[in-house]
């Protein structure tokens, strides 16, 4: 069983930065695929970024502003968010799956989810 715990959310002004962390515990196979998702009030949960080994993938809306990375020694995945905009306001979730998702940011492909961390960007 894999457990995920997010941290690092908060409130920031537009143009600012935040770094989210997702710590993985439990059974951690080497083939764990990780993603960050977000859900704004009244909207569907959407994929933001994906990482497996050195491969990464980003939603167009965050490309060039967000960076996903991992520290295997710490069992932690990060999401560095720069140039934040008001439309980035959402609950951010970390997710994991054992098998390679056919579509990297398809939420239905992920088996494990964290509780989320709130990001609020004020303009």
Textual characterization of the structure:
The chain is mainly beta and 123 residues long. The protein is built from no helices and 11 strands. Strands 2, 4, 5, 6, 9, 10 and 11 form a 7-stranded mixed sheet that branches. It has a 4-stranded antiparallel sheet with strand order 1-3-8-7, with no helix packed on it. A hairpin with a 2-residue loop joins strand 5 (46-52) and strand 6 (55-58). It starts with a strand and ends with a strand. The model has no long low-confidence stretch (mean pLDDT 94).
How is the topology of this model organized?
Blueprint: E1 2-7, E2 10-13, E3 18-26, E4 33-39, E5 46-52, E6 55-58, E7 66-71, E8 76-81, E9 90-97, E10 112-113, E11 117-122
Parallel strand pairs: 2-11
Antiparallel strand pairs: 1-3, 3-8, 4-5, 4-9, 5-6, 7-8, 9-10, 9-11
Indicate the structural class: mainly beta
What is the count of β-strands?
11
Average of pLDDT: 94
- Helix count from the secondary structure assignment: 0
Write down the secondary-structure element order: EEEEEEEEEEE
* Multimeric organization: single chain
Query: Which word captures the global form?
Result: globular
Radius of gyration: 13 Å
Tell me the fraction of residues in β-strands, as a range: over 45%
Q: Terminal Cα separation, in Å? A: 40 Å
Unreliable segments of 5+ consecutive residues: none
Helix content: under 10%
Sheet with the most strands, sense and barrel status: 7 strands, mixed
